[in-house]
Amino acid sequence: MSAVEGRQARAVDERPGGRGWCLAAFGVNLALGVPGVVPVWLVWYFLANGPLADAGWTQREPTENDGMALWLVIIVPVVAVFGGIWWLANAPLRRRAPLGPLAYWTAGVLMTLVPTVVLIVGSYV
């Protein structure tokens, strides 16, 4: 790499919207995915024992006899708090990242789901 190419690469990383902000967003969303396993699991548990079981796609947990209203009291605050933290962490990064809004938010959600997917795949291995 020549000196000119090196300066151009550094200039891309240092300007607002450079690759460094994409890496920061990647890391933040991956790190948020670790505690994000909890709200994802709670939503899945509710869906698997409620609407999906009613449709015949899943089987209800046999020991679940408390009703789904109790789960909604737990799920809604957990998902709301996690969603707020996720949004607050990503909003400033979105303004600086060189991606379009749709690409940024899609990539952010997918990166946040990576730890959950790793746990699911790891449970089958």
Question: What are its keywords?
Answer:
125 residues; mainly alpha
Offer a concise description of the structure.
With 125 residues, the chain is mainly α.
Structure description:
This protein has 125 residues and is an all-alpha fold. Helices cover 78% and strands 0% of the residues. The protein has 6 helices and no strands. It has helices at 3-14, 19-33, 37-49, 51-54, 68-96, 101-124. Helix 2 (19-33) packs across helix 6 (101-124) and helix 3 runs antiparallel to helix 5. The longest helix has 29 residues, at 68-96. The protein is elongated, with a radius of gyration of 20 Å. The N and C termini lie far apart (43 Å). Residues 11-15 have low confidence and may be disordered.
- Judged by helices, strands and strand pairing, the structural class is mainly alpha
Q: State the major sheet.
A: none
| Percentage of β-strand residues | under 5%
Cα-based radius of gyration, to the nearest Å:
20 Å
Which percent bin holds the helix content?
A: over 70%
Element string (H = helix, E = strand): HHHHHH
Mean pLDDT: 86
- Report the uncertain regions: 11-15
**In DSSP terms, counting alpha (H) and pi (I) runs of 4 or more, how many helices?**
6
| Shape estimate | elongated
Span from first to last CA? 43 Å
Count of individual beta strands: 0
